[in-house]
Known about the structure:
- This protein is an alpha+beta fold.
- The protein has one domain (about 10-155): Arc Repressor Mutant, subunit A (Orthogonal Bundle).
- It has helices spanning about 10-30, 35-45, 55-60, 70-80, 130-135, 150-155, and strands at about 85-90, 95, 105-110, 115-120, 145-150.
- The strands form two sheets. A three-stranded mixed beta sheet has the order 4-3-5, with no helix packed on it. A two-stranded antiparallel ribbon has the order 1-2.
- Strand 3 and strand 4 form a beta hairpin.
- It is globular and about 50 Å long.
Amino acid sequence: MESVGMTAHDHGSCKAERLAAAHGFCDAHRLHFTAVRRRVFEILLDEHKALGAYDILARLKAEGFGSQPPVAYRTLDFLVKHGFVHRIERLNAYVACVHPCETHDPAFMICRLCNTVAETSALPSRGMLGPAAREAGFEIEQTVVEAIGVCPSCRAEGVAG
């Protein structure tokens, strides 16, 4: 799986493909991809930075959508549950999934300076955690892999510190 967020790519196609995948998934599973759900997903697709619920809520409010926190949290819960969005634990924020509607084990590279997030693939059962889990008789169901560092743009600007 390629990483996106810290590498050059066709952002228009990237956004269009993910929106189409979300629409197709919702249609196939008879889920309602409401205007608010679509807009929150678009907001997260617009940037490759993690946004907090209140950042998203502020944008929704400015656009005439609901302004109460449950609006954002219910929408984000739906988007996370169905694989369109990931929650970034370290930042208590959300980022659009690179491969919505696909089963995968994502890992995140988070720039500590600008909060840009790049998603890539993690294979916990094949890494160091896999053998340790097997030895303990533990079955891994989910992992959260978040690497903190400095992205290429911040390094090029000389702001790493």
